Amino acid sequence: MDLVVPSDDLAAAWRDAHAEWGPGFHEDGFGLTADDDVESAQGFSDWVERLRVDAECTYRWIVAGERVLGGVALRHDSHEFAERLGHIGYGVRPSERGRGVASRAVREVLRLAGDVGMTRVTAVCEASNVASIATLTRAGGERVECIGSAVRFRIPVHPIFCA
Ligand SMILES: CC(C)(COP(=O)(O)OP(=O)(O)OC[C@H]1O[C@@H](n2cnc3c(N)ncnc32)[C@H](O)[C@@H]1OP(=O)(O)O)[C@@H](O)C(=O)NCCC(=O)NCCS
After folding, report:
1. How far is the CA of 88 from the centre of ligand 1 (A)?
2. What is the CATH number of the domain that holds 76?
3. Which atom of ligand 1 approaches the CA of 93 most closely?
4. Exposed, middle or buried by CB within 10 Å (0-12, 13-18, 19+), for 163?
5. φ and ψ at 19, to 5 degrees?
6. Per-residue pLDDT tens for 77-116?
């Protein structure tokens, strides 16, 4: 399993994963919005390019062999939504859940965070999202705040993850 830079080359594999999530733009960690046209070749290419050039968020796709298993996003401190939404977001396609994919991906994201000089990251998720809370806890996260029905975690980026 690797975290890879979003690429046109993965269009077919990404669409296969997208179909599994079902309609809508709810895939956490992919930076997908209702303005993105991921159906046409040009629209997909434009979306991927937007992700690649975003200086305030690092996007990676979780890939194993020819399959896209999920996506992760690392919002840098400068990102306008880093405070509200947290620094990290992630999603795993339904058929790959419960196999440790998110746990390994978050570990790799902490490495990326260390590479850009971050010493801690935050994540915000619904208090009812037991899988996400378990993922964050396993990654060393601590609950720091309740925000309505959501909870904010802080995860230290240990020096081992820093370049
Ligand atoms: C949250 C999500 C990313 C977890 O991905 P995953 O690859 O299934 O997670 P893992 O297999 O690495 O499991 C991580 C932990 O969650 C637990 N877990 C996974 N699925 C679970 C479930 N359905 N119910 C309870 N716990 C669950 C695992 O047991 C593990 O805990 P442990 O380390 O204490 O054993 C995935 O469920 C998902 O994509 N959900 C929709 C998007 C989302 O909620 N993203 C997070 C937004 S904040």
Report:
1. 14
2. 3.40.630.30
3. 39
4. exposed
5. -60, -35
6. 999 999 999 999 999 999 999 999 999 999 999 999 999 8
